[in-house]
Amino acid sequence: MIKLEGIGWEAPGGFILRDIHVEIPTGIYAVLMGATGCGKTTLLEILCGLRAPAQGRVWLNDQDVTALEPRHRQIGYLPQDLALFPEMCVRDQIGFAPKLQRSLQVNTMVNELAEELGITHLLDRLPEHLSGGEKQRVALARALAAQPRVLLLDEPLSALDEATHAEAAQLLRHLHEKHALTVLHVTHSSREAESLAQMKLRLHDGKMLLE
Ligand SMILES: Nc1ncnc2c1ncn2[C@@H]1O[C@H](COP(=O)(O)OP(=O)(O)OP(=O)(O)O)[C@@H](O)[C@H]1O
């Protein structure tokens, strides 16, 4: 479950989010839409703890995580730019979180996720020369390796051509089910929302609306 309770936030330039309330039940794939600059990324960053709200509480699976550091929130986050580590091969990117968590099965986990996402052949490559779709799969595998309960996706399919887009949407559906994730996916595409959303949300004028 993802719950935002009375979230407020103000940017130095005057942009304001006021009294945002939303609850996404456990296991639901929610899609968030809204005009450019309306605060979608800001909300994702508040959820994962990269920004602190000025007011309100953040709840994940019945736990108030407002004061918890990002690494303790069990959230997988795919930022718009994917934020892959430039100097690290794909194998180490995926193994990064399991190593931090001192998992005894880092190699098994990396190999299983790489197979699931179809990137086994990329494990020894650096991210620099990967295609957009390949980078996206690596970032997804890295996020899933932390065994998150919640997955936050910021325009994850926007750089893909039509055929790859359909395939990647299918992969997201599969991962959502297989890993029993609660997902919040930001997009500008209403077609994408139609094909993936079990719950549709819209941020408009600093308010969250259920569609
Ligand atoms: N650190 C900051 N300082 C000043 N303004 C900021 C800061 N961070 C975000 N903003 C402003 O807050 C507003 C919301 O930004 P945000 O990135 O959340 O929008 P968005 O809905 O994700 O946009 P897009 O769809 O274009 O990705 C924007 O007007 C942005 O310029």
TrEMBL record:
Keywords of the record: ATP-binding, Nucleotide-binding, Transport
MF (Gene Ontology): ATP binding; ATP hydrolysis activity
Residue span(s) of domain ABC transporter: 2-211
Organism domain of life: Bacteria
One family name in Pfam for this protein: ABC_tran
PROSITE patterns per the UniProt record, alphabetical: ABC_TRANSPORTER_1, ABC_TRANSPORTER_2
InterPro entries, alphabetized: AAA+_ATPase (IPR003593), ABC_SmlMolc_Importer (IPR050093), ABC_transporter-like_ATP-bd (IPR003439), ABC_transporter-like_CS (IPR017871), P-loop_NTPase (IPR027417)
Entry keyword annotation includes NADP: no
PANTHER family xrefs: SPERMIDINE/PUTRESCINE IMPORT ATP-BINDING PROTEIN POTA, SPERMIDINE_PUTRESCINE IMPORT ATP-BINDING PROTEIN POTA
Full protein name: Carbohydrate ABC transporter ATP-binding protein (CUT1 family)
Organism lineage string: Bacteria, Pseudomonadati, Verrucomicrobiota, Verrucomicrobiia, Verrucomicrobiales
